[in-house]
Amino acid sequence: MTPRRLLHFTLNTILAFVAVSLVSACDRSSMFTASTVPTLRVQDIVVSVSADASPGAARSGAPPLPGNGPTVSVAGNQTIINGGTLPVQVAGRAPFDTIYMVVAAKTVGLASEAPGGVDGFYEIHLPALQSAATALLAFPQTFPLRSFDLRFAVAASAGPIGPFATLTTTPIEVGSGDVQVTLSWDVDSDVDLHVVDPANEEIFYAHLQSASGGKLDLDSNAACALDHKRNENITWPVGRAPRGQYTVRVDYWDACGVGATNYTVRINNNAGSSQIFTASFERTSGATVTALPALSDLFSGAALKKKGRR
Asked: Is the pTM of this model over 0.70?
């Protein structure tokens, strides 16, 4: 038997009217001049970033020029989803205590194809010198770009920064709406997202949609048939999410031959709040998983045993 994680939360959805600019499918092929393409900020593409519990600060302008500081390698899931998260492992050849992150746009607006075009960068100060860190990125519920790269560099204290290392991403558009629950993980195992709505109807791989409108619109690595997306998403459309208590479960269906799996759950609601949970599953069958602590009045955790699948 393999354990699975249970998260509880009570969510009182606050329905609001939001003015949205819609672009039709035919408009996506329209050509825009440089003057009509709005300037994007790094916060428009990555809404937050932290590393080892240290929050990143968004800075305007260009990052410091790379010099002879520590070289770095980065690793992370290349598939990302709107409203989701991405842990990135940053490893330096020498100790560092500062991480810089920039977004390199491949597609600026809808027309031009060139690097750059995004203003600003994130700067993360770690509590001490270290040779590796995990940067946790959170994305907006709507991507302003169809494709972009993430670039990371590090520095030690007041020394020069090293060269930037690139992680290429492949954004996938998923549903967001009034309530959105996302799951991402770091290796090619089979992890499943479950959400039970206030009417006690469970949404998961075998029951894709509830009467309340909740829907699983992305499932990954089902039964170890690896697609390498490593993201799942359950959402309620605008105006459909019921008030009440929701239960979120993360089920470690199968390790698929890999070791431990690190995963992140992010819960977004239409009140503009967001909660992020990070935890791990061990490969060993029957391992004990510690319950997540209560993070607020709306969220609490407990461990459950895995149920059968497929």
From this structure: yes
| Phi then psi dihedrals of residue 69, to 5 deg | -75, -175
Surface-to-core class of residue 37, CB atoms within 10 Å of its CB (0-12 exposed, 13-18 middle, 19+ buried):
middle
| Fold annotation for 3-12+173-305 | Jelly Rolls (2.60.120)
Per-residue tokens: 212: 């309340």
CATH superfamily of 39-171: Immunoglobulins (2.60.40.10)
Question: What pLDDT score does 102 carry?
Answer: 95
Domain chopping of the chain, boundaries: 3-12+173-305, 39-171
| Position 304 pLDDT exceeds 50 | no
Query: Closest Cα partner for 77 from 220, 231, 234, 219?
Result: 231
Task: Please determine whether the domains at 3-12+173-305 and 39-171 fall in the same fold group of CATH.
Answer: no
Model confidence over 272-290: pLDDT tens digits? 788 999 999 886 443 323 2
For the chain, the first-to-last Cα distance in angstroms comes to 16
CA dist 99 and 155 (Å) reads: 7
